Amino acid sequence: MTSSKHQFPHRPYQPLDPGCSSEHAAVAFFNSMKLRRSVRAFSDRPVSRETIEKLILTAGSAPSGANKQGWRFVAVSDPVMKRKIRLAAEQEEREFYGGRASQEWLQDLEPFETNPEKPFLETAPWLIVVFYQQKTEDGKKVYYPLESVGLASGFLLAAIHQAGLASLTHTPSPMKFLAQILGRPENERPFLLIPLGYPAADCEVPDIAKKSLDEIAVFLESCPEGEA
Asked: Residue 96 is part of a domain; what is its CATH number?
């Protein structure tokens, strides 16, 4: 029954039934997601548009400020367009490695053996360029645009991984060229450039570790009665 106090119609919430306990479901998802890695060596094996559509719809299911959904996902498979993006990205990267980045930043990147060359921008069958909106198409305010698009991007990366695909969060700086090449309107700003596809057969990734639970989490729980 819809109450008159609600501006929108309401319906009963339908939680996901994972088919097991919450603990087991959480462990299973963690065990899956801990395998996700950023990949820079892609196969040119095709990925269907239908797959990309579902990945983007998953991203679009993320929460957003006042449900404004202030994001836009531009999916690019056209080789000519991917070539333009690669050339523009490499130009920005040459300036980054050639003096724009601090020495400390460059030293932190050394173990990953990155450089201005970005062939994956053409090899990967798809590029998804994530934009955030400063205002809606009709000029209305978008609340928490960066926080919202960050949540949607996290959903997207998880969905890509769950589909058995690999991805990379590429952030050439500045990224204005993406809006220009893709013909995006003034109210949109580029946030992430995500190549995705199947990893190359000889793909390798740096052998790094994530921080432990103690390093990333703080638990504030009530003490058992009688303890201080």
From this structure: 3.40.109.10
